[in-house]
Write a structure and sequence with these properties.
Length: 107
């Protein structure tokens, strides 16, 4: 999990998914002095933290700049929270969901 948000942990708390992430890199642009979105730096740092090649990773992103950054690196799932599905596809999302549960075949 890479996040440019200083409140990454707080944002994830309601979903109770903390145990699903082996690594969490919060506000990577500040902590690691990386370029922010739409640069790919944060996603590359997350892949390195997991010991994964970038082509083995996927980006799940709600911000258009993040979708664009992820597109530069490979597969992108747009998470449409505010009615931007069309714009996310235009910025490079391979698929767009409104809820990550859709990827599991559950409503």
């Amino acid at each position: 999990m890479a996040s440019s948000s200083a409140n990454c942990a707080e944002a994830l708390a309601p979903a109770a998914v903390d145990d699903l992430f082996e690594e969490r890199i919060g506000d990577v642009t500040v902590e690691a002095d990386l370029a922010g979105k739409p640069a790919l730096d944060a996603y590359l740092a997350a892949a390195r933290a997991l010991g994964a090649d970038p082509d083995q990773a996927a980006v799940f992103e709600d911000a258009l700049s993040g979708v664009e950054a992820g597109r530069a690196g490979g597969f992108v799932v747009g998470v449409d929270r505010v009615g931007q599905a069309h714009a996310q596809r235009a910025h490079g999302a391979d698929t767009v969901v409104t809820d990550l549960a859709e990827l599991l075949g559950r409503p």
